[in-house]
């Protein structure tokens, strides 16, 4: 468990303290995939670097498994960092070392593994990230996705309990992003390790995260289970991110809504209710006619969801709303 | 009229070439031995680097700058008492080596510092995140990553030392420069001058070629 207790970070610029992270308290549970989303400069990069103390805190405590890591001395900090893997946007592999040597590097630095142990672990990891055939290549000979898989294997070498991902998919194309995210999700399940992932793409959060914190100007403005935050965003920044990820143009949406007749409802289906043949029966029972203004059916991690914006005309609206709510559909009246 | 190269004593030329080779080789060796750690320290002490030490950086940087700003021909003369103290003579091949190192080491140190700065900061960060000590970061990540740049730096230093070594002929340093001055300049034996210059050009060409090949061999980018 990672506990932030009034953690604060500021930089000294020309004798003045510029805050990068306002006092923040939050808890990241063991074994969860925790997303931190925010625009560049929002402080998410700083936040993730506090967890392995690449950036020292200015104030507050960070407790990891009940130990305050901000009080560690240099040697304790080095020992602690071996238990925290990290992957990066630009991979940060050593260009002078082969794939196998890159993966072996953290184990060699640790100085507690025998040559045989290192060799066996490297082989195992290469197989896990499907790069066994590339062991003796240099990073420059690999594609972006392959490089990030080497990065992941390297981060896992010393069997960490926490994996930090710093914009790990931002330099990758959509297809590669998907395969890297799947690998991260699989690793999270298999090894039960805690993943803290920062990104500027809500879509990445939607695919792999259990919970998410939204950051804006050095502050966590919204936090909660991904399905909550994603389907019912409260803060304007969160809404921006959700709209962006669904490529919804706000002005166009407003225009569409103005043209539509009758009441406008937004229905949110989650889990099993997504598959129920509901709308037809509700329409028959209540006598309302509906047209679909916008909608999306997708998954949040493993949970299917649907979100539809409808305009309803005629019939008995109350009956329709009751029937929908009875079927565990979340109903919002937009107009 | 005698032959075109009548003044050229090929045995002398051979000896002088060998002397130049020894002077460049020995001074390059010591320049690297001294310049490499100084360059690493310059890098580590620098602003926003691993061992940021503004005072130590300023001192080291000042010494390097002083040695580099003195024209080599002056450095040769200024160094004479020190050279005599160190190896007993300021003449010949041996006498030329201390001033050559004094000129070459700070030059090479700056090149090392520059090539270390070229290493992606992300690599240092990643290595730090693995729990590496500063020593491990330097030897495990920084130097291997900067190796092509450092080899290119050694090549440039070697070539600079060839010209410095030739210059040391002025104060009796030996080698091809000495030959060029004593015969080519003082006795107006233009043919000797031409041969020594030609040999120096060949020498530099060969050094550059070897350096380029090594850089290519060690580049994995």
Automatic annotation (TrEMBL), chain A:
User: What are the GO BP annotations of this UniProt entry?
Assistant: amino acid transport
What keywords sit in the KW lines? Amino-acid transport, ATP-binding, Cell inner membrane, Cell membrane, Coiled coil, Membrane, Nucleotide-binding, Translocase, Transport
Q: How does it sit in the membrane?
A: Peripheral membrane protein
Q: Which intervals of the chain form a coiled coil? A: 243-270
What functional role does this protein have? Part of the ABC transporter FtsEX involved in cellular division. Important for assembly or stability of the septal ring.
Family named by the database record: Belongs to the ABC transporter superfamily.
| Domain ABC transporter stretches | 2-242
Q: Which InterPro entries match?
A: AAA+_ATPase, ABC_transporter-like_ATP-bd, ABC_transporter-like_CS, ACT-like_dom_sf, MetN_ABC, MetN_ABC_transporter-like, NIL_domain, P-loop_NTPase
Presence of keyword Cell cycle: no
The entry's cellular-component GO terms read:
plasma membrane
Q: Where in or outside the cell is it found?
A: Cell inner membrane
Q: Which SMART domains does the record cross-reference, listed alphabetically?
A: AAA (SM00382), NIL (SM00930)
Molecular function (Gene Ontology), one example:
ATP binding
Which organism does this sequence originate in?
Answer: Marinobacter persicus
Q: Where is it predominantly found?
A: membrane
| Top-level lineage group | Bacteria
The protein's name in its UniProt record: Cell division ATP-binding protein FtsE
PANTHER family named in the record? AMINO ACID IMPORT ATP-BINDING PROTEIN, METHIONINE IMPORT ATP-BINDING PROTEIN METN
TrEMBL record, chain B:
User: Has the keyword Cell cycle been applied to this entry?
Assistant: no
Main location per the UniProt record = membrane
The residues covered by the ABC transmembrane type-1 domain are 17-211
Q: Enumerate the UniProt keywords alphabetically.
A: Cell membrane, Membrane, Transmembrane, Transmembrane helix, Transport
Q: What is the membrane topology noted in the UniProt record heading this document?
A: Multi-pass membrane protein
Q: Which GO terms describe its cellular component?
A: plasma membrane
* Compartments in which it is found: Cell membrane
**Would I find Transmembrane among this entry's keywords?**
yes
Task: Give the GO terms filed under biological process for this record.
Answer: D-methionine transmembrane transport
Q: Which residues cross the membrane?
A: 20-45, 57-80, 86-111, 192-211
Record's PANTHER family? ABC TRANSPORTER PERMEASE, D-METHIONINE TRANSPORT SYSTEM PERMEASE PROTEIN METI-RELATED
Q: Which family does it belong to?
A: Belongs to the binding-protein-dependent transport system permease family. CysTW subfamily.
Q: What is this protein called?
A: D-methionine transport system permease protein
**Native species of this protein?**
Marinobacter persicus
